[in-house]
Structure to design on (464 residues):
């Protein structure tokens, strides 16, 4: 028999609906989340000052939880920019350019290379790292610029970002929202990411080939090469150093993966290893290329990376704070307690849901995927995946199983939609590199992504 729901539970549920409504209307959710934290804190404590303080402490709690991810992404962006400035990325990608002999190979080689680089460097920096080098090659062999953009989008911002197995930013957020270990989400997401990846990329490739055969797509023009403007202060490396760094950087990250497997490193431990490796690479590259002003360049790269990291995660902090409130963070955030028998707001709601209506795994999968899609409509991909995790936990508690699978499904849906595949304002990096219209790129990705979501949701029903 479940716990009797209190006003706190009903207000929390009401604000979940408000947040979903704002996302459907493409409005920012920060104000709604802050209002929710304030009102719930007021109900729990009965104190106006404690409620105001609760807003701040909830932000502190969320930032503490997210800080390792924010920092590692910031550091990776810093390292990526140093690689771009010094030309190391050109050397790393050049061997693959020699393999591109036709439009078909161009699509798949660019896609898988984007997947590999995005796994370690994050998709947005990866677009800059490889786009400027491989795009001219792809155009020369007959692959339209829109085809290059689709490949980079689906493999990078889709497959790599939705799994996020090395940096583990996405599974960290969804796992926290669901109140389950990060490792469980990662393990459950593997078959779903594979299904989603295969369906979306194959569908996109077939549609692309169809339109090329009909003559609807042309190779397009070569956009203006490098994304970084020439600068006399940019670090310069001798060709031999470029080759050495191009060889050793992938080796360092492969060794990180080996260490993760051998020593069972996951979550914060894996993040710390990747972050530390990225810092060392950044220092080595910058000091090798800037003998006189290397110290200043290191600081500049770190500042640029931190600006990027907090710009990406700024909208995430309020909504993450709200959904941490539904799990283990309630007491820490507002210094109040739920009823003794409570298992957390979200789990209590799940128990109540199970007691009043029959909940099946099919309904749970459809609802979680739907919530993931809705949370991705803001174009962030990350801002709402805590909600997807909370909804997954709610249904899993009601069903009695499938928490990790439902959480992974919500994560994949949210990131494929909002992370940079079908929301136009999230497509700007790839569209700009490839000199294509972001709205056209979004339209071309719609059918593959929707098809992939349908198939992946059906597969998830059998895995719950």
């Amino acid at each position: 028999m479940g716990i009797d729901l209190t006003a706190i539970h009903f207000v929390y549920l009401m604000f979940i609906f408000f947040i979903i409504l704002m996302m459907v209307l493409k409005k920012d959710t920060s104000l709604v989340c802050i209002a929710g934290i304030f009102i719930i804190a007021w109900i729990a404590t009965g104190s106006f000052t404690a409620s105001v303080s609760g807003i701040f402490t909830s932000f502190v709690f969320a930032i503490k939880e997210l800080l390792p991810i924010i920092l590692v992404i910031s550091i990776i962006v810093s390292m990526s920019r140093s690689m771009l400035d010094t030309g190391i990325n050109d050397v790393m990608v050049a061997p693959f350019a020699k393999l591109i002999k036709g439009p078909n190979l161009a699509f798949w080689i660019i896609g898988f290379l984007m997947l590999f680089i995005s796994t370690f460097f994050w998709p947005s920096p990866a677009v800059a790292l490889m786009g400027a080098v491989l795009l001219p090659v792809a155009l020369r062999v007959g692959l339209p610029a829109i085809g290059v953009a689709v490949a980079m989008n689906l493999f990078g911002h889709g497959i790599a970002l939705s799994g996020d197995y090395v940096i583990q930013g996405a599974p960290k957020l969804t796992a926290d929202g669901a109140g389950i270990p990060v490792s469980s989400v990662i393990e459950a997401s593997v078959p779903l990411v594979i299904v989603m990846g295969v369906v979306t990329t194959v569908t996109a490739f077939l549609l692309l080939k169809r339109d090329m055969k009909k003559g609807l797509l042309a190779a397009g023009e070569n956009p203006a090469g490098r994304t970084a403007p020439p600068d006399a202060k940019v670090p310069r490396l001798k060709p031999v150093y470029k080759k050495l760094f191009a060889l050793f950087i992938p080796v360092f990250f492969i060794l990180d993966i080996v260490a993760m497997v051998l020593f069972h490193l996951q979550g914060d431990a894996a993040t710390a290893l990747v972050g530390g490796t990225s810092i060392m690479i950044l220092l080595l590259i910058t000091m090798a290329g800037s003998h006189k002003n290397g110290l200043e360049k290191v600081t500049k790269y770190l500042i640029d990376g931190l600006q990027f990291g907090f710009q990406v995660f700024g909208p995430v902090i309020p909504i993450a704070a709200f959904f941490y409130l539904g799990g283990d963070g309630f007491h820490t955030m507002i210094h109040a307690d739920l009823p003794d028998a409570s298992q957390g707001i979200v789990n209590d709601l799940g128990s109540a849901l199970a007691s009043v209506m029959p909940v099946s795994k099919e309904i749970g999968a459809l609802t979680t995927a739907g919530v993931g899609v809705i949370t991705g409509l803001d174009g962030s991909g990350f801002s709402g995946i805590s909600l997807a995790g909370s909804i997954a936990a709610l249904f899993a508690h009601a069903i009695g199983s499938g928490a990790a699978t439902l959480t992974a499904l919500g994560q994949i849906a949210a990131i494929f939609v909002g992370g940079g595949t079908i929301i136009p304002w999230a497509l700007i990096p790839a569209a700009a590199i490839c000199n294509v219209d972001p709205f056209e790129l979004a339209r071309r990705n719609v059918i593959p992504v929707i098809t992939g979501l349908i198939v992946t949701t059906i597969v998830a029903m059998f895995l719950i």
